[in-house]
Amino acid sequence: MNRHQPSTQEGEEAEEPEQEEKQDLKDLVKKRDLELSSSSDSSRIFRVQSRHRACDVMVHALENEHIRFIFGIPGEENLALLDSLRGSSIRMVITRHEQAAGFMAATMGRLTGKAGLCFSTLGPGALNLATAAAYAQLAGFPMLMITGQKPIRTSKQGSFQIIDVVDAMRPITKFTKQIADGDLVPSMVREAIRVAEEERPGAVHLELPEDIASTMTDAQAFPVYPVRRPIAEGKAIATAVNLIHASSHPLLLIGAGANRQQTQKMLLEFVDQLQIPFVTTQMGKGVINEAHPLYLGCCALSAKDYVHVCIEKADLIINIGHDVVEKPPFFMQHGKAPMVIHVNFYTAKVDNIYFPQLEVVGDIANAVWQLKNALQQQQHWNYSFMMQVKADLEEHIGKGANDTRFPLTPQRVVSDLRKVMPADGIVCLDNGMFKVWFARCYKAYEPNTLLLDNSLATMGAGLPSAAAACLLHPEKKVVAVCGDGGFMLNSQEMETAVRLDINLTIVVLNDNGFGMIKWKQTAAGYSMFGLDLKNPNFVAYANSYGAKGYCVRSANELSWILHDCIFGSTSGVKLIEVPLDYTWANQILDHELPGLIKKRQSMSDAESRISPALFMAVNSSTTMSNSLLQPMSIPTMISEKACGSSEEEAVSMENRAAEMKEEDLASTAVCEPLWSRIACTTDAAVGVSYVSSPMCPSDRPDCVCLTNVHLECSECGRSYPM
């Protein structure tokens, strides 16, 4: 006879399980309650009895993984799991929506590097986790979701509430499985968390059916052993060192993947030792203190910002931990600098705008350490232009910091919050137009102190993420910054925050509409339509939850209200409504900024060039594919120094070919798509010769000695040492 009781709909008569089994389960629960009352160590149960419910084994396995919190909303199908959690060391946090539970779990994973945990019932509850799963998966936050399901062995409810959650989760997770046997619980928990936490981190999912949760098993939690990541190959490191030494304007770009504790330390040592300037992606902010004198800015936009002038000036970018799921910090172009060295835990995902010429794959911290030890500062590295751009950016950002217009500008909000927040205070951003200004203007002094999402970029995550940060770091000041649209998507979690009695300040930037989409609608030339909102009284709304509401009435009020909310108490939820107007800010992005950047470029030699030394280093490398070099053209090989003026460009490929014909050398074996004219100035060979491209099947033997090579410009006749 089947030992598992089927689930029943309300009003239906359930089949009674065998009396013996029913009594066994009652005795087991009673014994468990007695043990829990005599000891707070739930693992003690597993020392005094050999068989347990599968749900008890699951909770013990989760404790064994050092999980501290679980977020979610229970249902009928996971009541057994709920009962197991009752005596667990894992703190359960009930939220008002499963999506918010997922955001909180993902934030735990983001801040700790260990899998955050959330749960839900079957069907509708499980599907509510989908957005949070995609949020964690795209951003690389380790998270485990556990969902319930109807009994899979016997059930009298047909297909009521049942969907294939495992298949539904497959496109948005790294791993998704149904547990069909209680004996498999420990191994599947261990595997799920291993997959969630290994590089690249992400979301994983386990489905625990109702009948399997109550089965008896003697399975035990698996031990957790440390795993060492593989390190980068020595040849890749050596090639990277050669390229960096040969470059004229190397630049460090820090992405989200660099936000690991050891990597942060190594990167700071790298920058301090080599004095190479750095920029960040949005999710790389704070990896190195942005008060550092070599910090040039954040790629808040993909183009046409001050930081992109520096990127365009660079001939080589050392790209640390960048992931293409982030909105692109810059666009690569075939045949144009900068060249890119990809340094990450995994190989680059190549697309039309990202195709690095060299990949250094392995543990990032170790790779940076190896590079640091092998590199030396080079006298020909020149950053004077980049540092001038940095000064211009600082001046530009400072213009709106004390603006007194009302409603407030986003620049004033960012400035006031930065002045009030301590260095280790955590600001959690929702998604909206304001995120661009925080990325550009808010300097992060420590890692994970400005939490924003630049991958899925979903609205509604700001408040739940801030609540999770408060739970994990009750000693720190935490502020959630949300637009009115994003805040209302999960505003019900104010009740969760009030119930948890956390010290949280919520800033709601109210422009009565979807500001980001309005900006894009206008830029696309469409008429304004369909994006206006009518909001509630946010002060009264906050008060109704038991929070304390404020509304800013003038620009100068914001600073002192922020200070009072952040430092005036050690607990409680505070909400500050800030009327906001994006008109001036959007004018800067649409009109003023592009004009300033164009002027800056025209006043300088900012055009990106591959220096001859770097080009030769690339050609001599045996680790790089020739196909990656093929798009390079003569203008990228010849330095502006060869002509004495940035306005004198190298002649086109057609003129080069014509020149060859005039000199009656057209019949020689020269690879036309990529070649350069050189002058050999040693005693062994004096005069003009040619060297073929690296794609040419045979090198020309004309030049007896290539140890003292100069690149000659056909415009002015001057030569430049290679």
From TrEMBL:
Organism: Sphagnum troendelagicum
InterPro entries to which the protein is assigned, alphabetical: DHS-like_NAD/FAD-binding_dom, THDP-binding, Thiamin_PyroP_enz_cen_dom, Thiamin_PyroP_enz_TPP-bd_dom, TPP_enz, TPP_enzyme_TPP-bd
Top-rank taxon, per record: Eukaryota
Domain Thiamine pyrophosphate enzyme TPP-binding residues, every copy: 430-578
Keyword Transmembrane listed: no
SUPFAM superfamilies (alphabetical): DHS-like NAD/FAD-binding domain, Thiamin diphosphate-binding fold (THDP-binding)
Cross-referenced NCBIfam families: PRK08322.1
Biased composition (Acidic residues): 10-19
Occurrences of domain Thiamine pyrophosphate enzyme central (ranges): 237-371
Keywords per UniProt: Thiamine pyrophosphate
Basic and acidic residues bias (residue ranges): 20-35
Domain Thiamine pyrophosphate enzyme N-terminal TPP-binding: 55-166
Span list, region Disordered: 1-35
Protein name from the UniProt record: Acetolactate synthase
CDD domains per record: TPP_PYR_POX_like
Family according to the record: Belongs to the TPP enzyme family.
